[in-house]
Design a protein that fits this description.
Blueprint: E1 8-12, H1 19-35, E2 41-45, H2 56-68, E3 73-75, H3 79-88, H4 95-109, H5 114-119, H6 122-132, H7 135-142, E4 148-150, E5 153-155, H8 171-176, H9 179-182, E6 191-194, E7 203-204, E8 208-210, H10 215-218, E9 222-227, E10 230-235
Parallel strand pairs: 1-2, 2-3, 5-6, 6-8
Antiparallel strand pairs: 1-9, 4-5, 7-8, 9-10
Length: 250
């Protein structure tokens, strides 16, 4: 089991616009911290705060408020945030891709109307969303991490490229990789904690821990707790999304 790190950690998997699930696990974290004599802990968000679920703007606002409160948090840039951020930076041509992977719900959560969505050009829609996203949200997205190192653990969104030193990993792999990483049994030097790829249950391997349990559809937002050499998993108790929800491409 991994060596001790100096503070209790909580890694939160892909939220995808389910603020109800995030609020649930944050309450559980607060309760666990209270039982730990109030000792400080750190929360690491593994990325994909947005898209697919109905409350992307609300999720980002929760994370902004947590950071503003002085809470120790780290936020990884997921592939969904990458596409959204690039649109906010001027790449309106990415809107069709963004919508395909669940971005329509994000647009609506920030106040885009159905009429605007149906009638505006990509360029006009991108300009409108740039007007609606608060500066604090944009600042958070611009300040996300690519990797977080804590003790014997490395936290990333999607994974790493096996055989490449951690310091030399590409941002594209950190946010998008799947099979070369998921199928590898290699010793990466540290245990890689990641989201991005949905599994029915959290995966605890000798070289990686995956905690994306498809929260937006399953209603199960999974959290990994780490305290010294102890690890544990817990999840939200909220209900799954409505049956009318449909999966978007990853």
């Amino acid at each position: 089991m991994a060596a001790s790190y100096g503070a209790r950690l909580y890694a939160i998997g892909d939220i995808h616009g389910r603020c109800d699930l995030l609020d649930d696990v944050l309450q559980q974290i607060a309760a666990q911290d209270a039982k730990n004599a109030g000792n400080p802990s750190e929360i690491i968000f593994l990325g994909d705060l947005i898209d697919r679920g109905p409350e992307s703007a609300e999720v980002v606002e929760r994370v902004v408020a947590l950071r503003a409160s002085g809470r120790s948090i780290s936020v990884l840039l997921g592939n969904h945030e990458e596409v959204f951020l690039r649109i906010l930076q001027g790449e309106a041509n990415l809107l069709p891709m963004f919508i395909k992977i669940g971005g329509r719900e994000t647009l609506f959560s920030y106040g885009i109307t159905r009429h605007e969505y149906d009638t505006l050009s990509n360029e006009a829609l991108a300009e409108r969303i740039r007007e609606l996203v608060p500066p604090t949200h944009l600042a958070l997205l611009n300040d996300c991490d690519e990797m977080v190192f804590r003790g014997d653990y490395v936290f990333v969104h999607a994974g790493i490229r096996p055989g490449i030193p951690l310091a030399e990993q590409s941002e594209n792999d950190l946010r998008w990789i799947r099979n070369p990483f998921l199928e590898s049994n290699a010793d990466h030097g540290r245990i890689i904690v990641h989201g991005h790829t949905v599994t029915e249950e959290a995966e605890l391997r000798t070289n990686r821990i995956g905690i994306d349990t498809g929260a937006v559809y399953s209603g199960r937002l999974t959290v990994l707790g780490i305290d010294g050499t102890r690890r544990w998993l817990f999840e939200s108790a909220a209900k799954p999304a409505a049956e009318t929800a449909r999966r978007s491409a990853a």
